[in-house]
Amino acid sequence: MELSDQDNVALEEISKILERHPDLKLIEMVVEPTLIFNHLIIDTGKRKVYYNQQEVLLTTKEYELLYRLALYEGRVLSYRQLYEAVWGEDPMGNEANAVSCHVYGLRRKFREIALSLPSAIRCVREVGFCFEDITE
User: Is there a domain that residue 21 lies in?
Assistant: First the structure.
């Protein structure tokens, strides 16, 4: 691809701005993997969750929580880690309550369609949550 003189000038200006402000980050296109656990599929490209080929409708926060927990399967994520990852900011109060309420909603939705997933999200008292793949 060949750039015009105007494009080259614009790119030079952007480069100068980035040099003056090293705290600015370039946006990268990252292709995240589809996560598959038995009959649970988290399609990160479409931001959809399926269980037994049936779509499970989740809120944005519920999706983000499930995705983060599944991404770090087997590891305990603290309330603070989950809050910062899902809400994108430092907690300004009781992050444990906010995260727990959303996990409760997530578990309830899976319970409504009679799934075993609620037991896959394990609470680690006073620490956070852990996702454990349940083999049927």
Answer: no
Q: Is residue 96 part of a domain?
A: yes
- Listing DSSP states for 64-116 in one string gives HHHHHHHHTTTSEEEHHHHHHHHH-S---S-HHHHHHHHHHHHHHHHHHTT-S
Nearest to 92 by CA among 101, 80, 104: 80
- Residue 37's SS3 state is strand
In this prediction, residues 53-58 reach a mean pLDDT of: 90
Going by pLDDT thresholds of 50, 70 and 90, the confidence category of residue 22 is low
Q: What CATH number did the domain enclosing 61 receive?
A: 1.10.10.10
